[in-house]
């Protein structure tokens, strides 16, 4: 039996863990395994998704923490202190925290929380938000998390917030988003410059930043155009894109092939014309034509709106935030 196997067989003999230490990129498969030991059935975390998080310009390895018992990574936390122009300079994010099931009730999660909180305070952050960071993994705490997760968070001052959802459209079903042709509207999937300009004008901030990055990576940004003017846009993702789209982070839970749709939006001055439903329907048809069986629309509270085109709630999250105080 190896030392690692012995540690897992006899965790009580290993002793107390040392202080949290920064993770390395080479630790990402072990981090995925920690997460998947508890939530992998509903939210299977892939190394590719963690690589996406790690490669983000907002990732600082000094804000990643691991605890080892007997040389084996038994707990991990990923945190961020974003500095993008649109992000809140008072807010830090806990992107992920995972403890091996057999190593719980030994203070590992609390030690990681304390390390994250202290490091964020040192960077001037006064509030800690659960997920919802740039290039996020999660918009909040998965609803399937055990009750013990919320007991842990509430004991540390987290205030639960609103619900967000990932929606799923099964394109094989008759109710999945089919609208008749429109005489003047045209879907364009190869004019990234026009798409980025539209998002920068109508949705400055996070969406504009993300759209520009996705365009640079070759992601298809759909636009709904009329007489050459852009009326609406939708980001759409495929598994073979060079970047992993946010709507495909948990796609391993589906048999595939899976596509992603969103964010998407309509020129605020043109709302009320049915353009929102139109761009969603066109985006779903675009995915269907490329072989997608399911399409995920991630991080939304508009389930009633998207439900008109066959979207159902697939995954639910609850937001949360805690005060950190001063360093």
Description:
By secondary structure, the protein is an alpha+beta fold. The protein folds into 2 domains: 3-157, Aminopeptidase; 168-316, Gcn5-related N-acetyltransferase (GNAT) (Aminopeptidase). A hairpin with a 2-residue loop joins strand 1 and strand 2. It is built from 9 helices and 12 strands. The chain is 28% helix and 27% strand. Helix 6 runs antiparallel to helix 7 (206-216).
Q: How is the secondary structure organized here?
A:
Blueprint: H1 3-9, H2 28-39, H3 47-55, E1 64-69, E2 72-80, E3 91-99, H4 108-122, E4 127-130, E5 141-142, H5 147-154, E6 159-170, E7 186-188, H6 192-202, H7 206-216, E8 220-226, E9 229-237, E10 258-266, H8 275-289, E11 294-300, H9 303-307, E12 312-323
Parallel strand pairs: 3-4, 10-11
Antiparallel strand pairs: 1-2, 2-3, 4-12, 5-12, 6-11, 6-12, 7-8, 8-9, 9-10
Helix pairs in contact: 6-7
Which properties best describe this structure?
Aminopeptidase, elongated, 2 domains, 9 helices, 12-stranded mixed beta sheet, 327 residues, 28% helix, alpha+beta
Architecture (CATH level 2) name of the largest domain: 3-Layer(aba) Sandwich
CATH domain fold name of the largest domain = Aminopeptidase
Can you identify the CATH superfamily of the largest domain?
Gcn5-related N-acetyltransferase (GNAT)
Number of domains: 2
Question: What's the CATH first level of the largest domain?
Answer: Alpha Beta
Secondary-structure element series: HHHEEEHEEHEEHHEEEHEHE
How much of the polypeptide forms β-strand, as a percent range?
Answer: 25-35%
- The helix fraction, in percent, is 25-40%
